[in-house]
Every structure is written in C-alpha cells, then in structure tokens.
Design brief:
Elements (H helix, E strand, L loop, with lengths): L6 H20 L2 H6 L13 H4 L7 H22 L1 H39 L3 H10 L8 H10 L4 H19 L7 H14 L4 E3 L6 E3 H18 L8 H19 L7
Antiparallel strand pairs: 1-2
Helix pairs in contact: 1-4, 4-5, 4-9, 5-8, 5-9, 5-11, 6-7, 9-10, 9-11, 10-11
Length: 263
C-alpha cells in the first residue's frame, strides 16, 4: 500500500497540508472565513462549498484524512487515472458539502418550528424538552431556572428569558462551521472498496487483516448508525461522511459501465 505517491494525490496532500499550516500559524482568521456555514447564516458564502474541504480543525483531523488519502489514493489514481481521481475527490467533497447543507437546513427548519410553537404558546415543559435536546449547549444552572419557571409559568420575565435562551441556541447552531475533507475521503474509501473489494488491508487498531469490502461496509454501517443516533454531543459531521460514500458509489457505478474509460 505504501507505494510511490502519484501526482494528483501528492498535490492534494501538499495543498491541504500547506493550507493547514497557513491557517494555523499565519492567517488564523482565514479558517473562519473559508469554513462551511449554514446556508442562511450571515457568514455563509457560496465558495465555502469548495474551500471547507481544505480546512481542518486540528492536526489529528488533518492527519486522519490525509493518511487515508495517502493509503488509498495512489492505487486508485493508477487505476482510474489522474483525471478521474481528481473528479472523485472534488465531486465527493463538494457534493458532501451541498448535501450536508441541505441536511442542516432541514434541522434548522425543525428548530425554527419548535421555537415558533413556544413563542405562540409558552410552556415550561416545552422549554424543558428544548433544553434536554440541546443540553450540551446549556450551563448546569439552567435546570434551576426550569424549576422556577415550572412553578410560575405565566411569569413574563421567565418567558422572556426562555425565549432569549432559545434564540441564542438557534443563533449558535446557525453559525457552527463544518471543515475537513472527510466527505471526499469517504468517496475514495467506497471507490477503493468497490474496485478492489478483496484487497487485504492490515489495520493498526486493532492489529488485524481485513478485506477492503468489509472495512467499507463497517464504515458505512457505523456512519448510518451515527446519523440515525444524532447524538447532540457528537461534533462529527456523519451525514457528510454518508454523503461522500453515496456520491462515490454512484460515480464508480457510472464509470464501471464503461471500463475502457478508466485508462
């Protein structure tokens, strides 16, 4: 697997690592500008659907994505050719950003409906449910406030405080950025699994051999599970990973219809 780096993979690695160094040590404000935001956020710009792929939260986030590209990318580039590996990486990355933005818009719409229901009919139990669903964004003292509010549900000061808290959480969620090339990497991963299903890989953790098709299946099932679980404490964009898998699978299926086009 540790074969010589191919041109496209090498350039993607150099560009992504270079951008990480620049945004981490020299132009730190640049990452906040190039990350991907909710489409109705005041911080959203269309070019972020491309640039977010080259942003990473920290070294380990960068390392995991680039290590995957380093391992699986060269053989794919040799098989597909430089044009198709670049298309695979960019289409899966941008496509994941687009689908994730749609998913985020759906979630924000659900949140807005929840807020509107509370504004029209303020109720302590409804606010308590909202806090439970977003407990990771509240301080522990919020439960003392909920107790006070429950004992005096018509208190306008309590109602106003609850509304302000919900607006704050809504605004915070609207401005949480997404960064990383994970969607693109998952596209590469599914492509590798579909084209080289029986290739034996050796995992580091746990140290054991596994065929590529089983590794991809595991990642796919885990990603679907994580999306369905929707753990509010989990800051990983699992839906973007799932999007990369789906888009990559569609691309490879399309290309496999005419195998001569691989070369």
């Amino acid at each position: 697997m540790f074969r010589s780096l191919t041109p496209v993979v090498k350039n993607l690695l150099l560009i992504t690592i270079g951008v990480f160094v620049i945004t981490s040590f020299f132009l730190k404000d640049l990452q906040a500008w190039l990350a991907l935001y909710y489409i109705e956020s005041r911080r959203f710009m269309p070019f972020q659907l491309l640039t977010y792929m080259f942003m990473h939260a920290d070294f380990w986030h960068l390392f995991s994505n680039m290590f995957g590209l380093f391992i699986f990318g060269p053989l794919l580039e040799q098989f597909l050719g430089p044009k198709k590996i670049l298309i695979l990486w960019m289409v899966c990355g941008i496509g994941s950003g687009v689908l994730y933005s749609g998913y985020t818009a759906y979630q924000m719409n659900q949140l807005d409906n929840q807020l509107e229901s509370f504004y029209n009919n303020p109720d302590p139990e409804m606010f308590n449910q909202f806090v439970s669903e977003n407990r990771h964004m509240f301080k522990p003292g919020i439960y003392d406030f909920i107790d006070d509010y429950s004992h005096d549900p018509d208190n306008q000061n309590y109602i106003q405080r609850a509304e302000d808290s919900m607006k704050y959480i809504r605004e915070s969620k609207a401005n949480v950025p997404m960064v990383g090339a994970s969607g693109a990497l998952f596209g590469v991963l599914i492509a590798f699994g579909m084209l080289f299903p029986n290739t034996q890989l050796f995992l580091l953790f746990p140290p054991m051999p596994i065929k590529a098709k089983y590794l991809v299946l595991f990642y796919g099932l885990y990603t679907v599970y994580s999306v369905l679980l929707n753990n509010p404490m989990d800051n990983v964009a699992h839906f973007a990973h799932l999007s990369g898998l789906i888009i990559g699978a569609i691309l490879v299926t399309f290309w496999k219809k005419n195998r001569t086009s691989f070369y």
